[in-house]
Design brief:
The chain is mostly helical. The protein folds into 2 domains: 65 residues; 111 residues, no CATH class. The protein is elongated, with a radius of gyration of 23 Å. The C terminus is likely disordered.
Length: 186
């Protein structure tokens, strides 16, 4: 075999290995994102209409949230939020509509206390999805019901369901463990 053929063979093998490695790492990235984001992965693909765009967005969310200073609650904060949530749930019996509004505000306050930015709902949902992917769909559903409630278009059953959704996110956010994905845990 002459030198030119050997060089071409080495280049072809190197390119094949590079393509194989690229495809392997891309597939692995997809699997990791699907595992981390759970149902939120499908939501992002549906939202962006393209798997690669969705994966780019999910990776950007993860990077953005890693820069945040998400913290655990103090024992006092946890007790205060727990007490306030119990009052909100009790308030639901007599006045469901205001109780749902309180639940929405309380989740927002809890997120802010933990260190999440809270200016925009979609940004909040995206940020929450990094560490709480399994309940972010509940947050979106609760928020949708709360908005219908503000328009007078939510039934009492809808409001009850919103409270259930808010409670699932609230309980996860109330957890005193700081997610291990953030810089302070590293």
């Amino acid at each position: 075999m002459n030198t030119t053929a050997l060089v071409i063979l080495i280049i072809v093998v190197a390119m094949a290995l590079a393509v194989g490695a690229f495809l392997y790492f891309r597939r692995r990235r997809t699997e990791n994102l699907r595992k981390q984001f759970g149902p939120e992965y499908k939501h992002a693909v549906d939202q962006y209409g393209d798997q690669r765009k969705a994966e780019t967005e999910l990776a950007a969310r993860e990077k953005r949230v890693h820069k945040l200073e998400i913290r655990s609650l103090t024992a006092e904060e946890q007790a205060r939020f727990t007490h306030a949530w119990k009052k909100t749930q009790a308030h639901f019996v007599d006045e469901p509509s205001p109780a749902v509004q309180q639940a929405d505000a309380m989740v927002k306050e809890l997120m802010q206390t933990r260190g999440y930015p809270v200016a925009d709902f979609e940004q909040r949902a995206a940020d929450i999805s990094v560490d709480h992917a399994n309940v972010v769909a509940n947050y979106r559903a609760a928020r949708d019901i709360a908005q219908r409630n503000n328009s007078g278009k939510a039934t009492t059953e809808d409001l009850r369901q919103a409270m259930v959704h808010y409670r699932s996110l609230f309980e996860e956010l109330l957890d005193t463990q700081t997610p291990t994905t953030h810089k302070e845990a590293v």
